[in-house]
Specification:
about 180 residues, alpha/beta, Rossmann fold, 8-stranded mixed sheet, 3-stranded mixed sheet, globular
């Protein structure tokens, strides 16, 4: 069973529907026992970094996430879920992220011809032998909708990147953590 962590973020149901269509057993929950007994865990979501961190802490889900990572349960952060795994975000100055991975979430810089939020298709460049995209062709296009981007401190965890005025670390992996 896949446990999807419920912390009042948006767009969780669309991830659930995609997984159900793929024949996966999925449960959206904030119950620590259900999350920690799952075969795999997903932290999806759309929303604001600061509000999301406050919701995770208020429900004790930050501690559940730390334990899941420590216990080596396969863990996937999607969108806001990726951002929360890092140390900080320009979106919420002074609000600490989970800090499971080292790096920061920065505001996309304005530039000539660049619209913020960035909404559109960009190709991915793969590096460092990532497992998440191992059967995906180099320069495949994926859709982005974001105003903030990841700058990981440890380049070797970056498995996919793209460009939009700056280099964007689009996917990372470390041990059992994918985002």
């Amino acid at each position: 069973m896949i446990a999807m962590i419920d912390y009042d973020a948006g767009n969780i149901k669309s991830v659930q529907k995609a997984l159900l269509k793929l024949g996966q057993e999925v449960e959206i929950t904030s119950d620590a026992e259900k999350i920690l007994s799952a075969e795999r865990i997903i932290l999806p979501g759309v929303g604001a970094f600061g509000d999301a961190m406050k919701n995770l802490r208020a429900r004790g889900l930050d501690k559940v996430i730390y334990r899941a990572v420590e216990e080596k349960i396969p863990f996937l952060g999607i969108c806001l879920g990726l951002q929360l795994l890092f140390e900080r975000s320009d979106e919420a100055p002074g609000e600490e992220g989970l800090g499971i991975l080292k790096g920061e979430i920065l505001r996309l810089p304005a530039g000539e011809g660049l619209k913020i939020p960035h909404m559109g298709w960009n190709s991915l460049h793969f590096m460092h032998g990532g497992r998440l995209f191992q059967n995906i062709k180099e320069e495949s296009y994926v859709y982005f909708v974001h105003s903030y981007y990841l700058k990981a401190k440890e380049e070797d965890i970056v498995k996919a990147s793209t460009e939009y005025g700056v280099q964007i670390h689009a996917s990372v992996e470390m041990d059992n953590v994918f985002a």
